[in-house]
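Researcher: I'm comparing several assemblies side by side, and this is the next one on my list. It has 230 residues spread over two chains. Same procedure as the others: predict the full complex and return the structure.
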Amino acid sequence: DQQVKQNSPSLSVQEGRISILNCDYTNSMFDYFLWYKKYPAEGPTFLISISSIKDKNEDGRFTVFLNKSAKHLSLHIVPSQPGDSAVYFCAALLSGGGADGLTFGKGTHLIIQP
Amino acid sequence: EAGVTQFPSHSVIEKGQTVTLRCDPISGHDNLYWYRRVMGKEIKFLLHFVKESKQDESGMPNNRFLAERTGGTYSTLKVQPAELEDSGVYFCASSHRAGTGGYEQYFGPGTRLTVT
């Protein structure tokens, strides 16, 4: 039973436009969310995170939005650049109790077209 | 600052053999995690160390897997005996969580294990 779902296996966006990657979760106890970017043959690289007490967090070209009532978060990249082509993973965490294993989605392959 | 390192980068072994994977976390990080990604599936949590203590090993698939972190520095993950379904990429991550948030985990490049 997948608790974090990324329903789009791939997404193609033109360079300079906005990329929007979506993520849904089922466990309402998750209280911290992270986005990772992964290139082939490398480990995931941390991008941006958000606590459940917020609904938006911004860092440069990257913004994450959280809608707790819908159990939905999204990552916006604007403007999209060729180097953004990678697989993006959404991850969730229950921060209390010391058990900090991340629960990942299956990833979305973002392709930025020139 | 050096990142998380893992050794070896690739390992090919036969079913029934033993393999030991090593992870060196970022210096000063008390938290160390192991994850595994089987082909086509999501990255799955295996276990979490705080210094040398196992905080959570709920993701360990069975008793053929043994993780250690002697001295609270590097960690090893041993698979004995290896089975075909153990094939995948094993990631290590570390974090130095502050008291008021900051749960970001930093990943190594992974070890690709192939069991034939």
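Model: For your comparison table: The CA atoms of residues 71 and 111 of chain A lie 26 Å apart.
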